[in-house]
Amino acid sequence: MSGLNDIGVKVVNPLPAGEDGLSGNADAILHEIVALLETYTTSGEMGAIDLHSLPLTPTDYELLRSTLAEGEVHAQINVIGNTEVRETLYPGVWWLTYYNAEGDIVADLLEITAVPEILKAPEEDIRDGLVRLRDLLTQAE
Asked: What is the pLDDT of residues 85-110, one digit of tens each?
């Protein structure tokens, strides 16, 4: 062998999808979301499901997107790479998609919480902002 082009590639569908293209995992995820919402509403414990690590077919993704749909909040964060945070139609269920610098999805999470951690300002940043605003007001006086 002299290069990558000489390596044989065999494409195998790792998911036993039915004729409808569903693997059954989307339905299991929706039931897990219900369980995580029940836990959150009773104990305040947040939960997360890493979609990128699960064997989902494109049809599974479409079922999740159409079932969860979009809520009222959509945020885009640009730190290292872009991150999209979308509230779903179900309050407390957030869909977070992380992209690398090339625009590829590197993580796709469902978070069950009131506000995703990525949207919260770190305490240190809040303290730094307080100092800067005080300094600005002091200079203006």
From this structure: 999 999 999 999 999 988 899 999 99
* DSSP summary character for residue 53: G
- Is residue 14 within 8 Å of residue 60, measured between CB atoms? no
Is residue 2 very low, low, confident or very high in pLDDT (cuts 50, 70, 90)? low
Instruction: Tell me the pLDDT of the chain averaged across its residues.
Output: 90
Residue 48 has what DSSP assignment?
E
Per-residue three-class SS string for 64-132 = HHHHHCCCCCEEEEEECEEEEEEECCCCCEEEEEEECCCCCEEEEEEEECCCCHHHCCCHHHHHHHHHH
Residue 53: is its pLDDT beyond 80?
yes
Report yes or no: 94 and 87 within 8 Å, Cβ to Cβ. yes
Contact 57, 97 (CB under 8 A): no
Contact by Cβ (8 Å): 65, 57: no
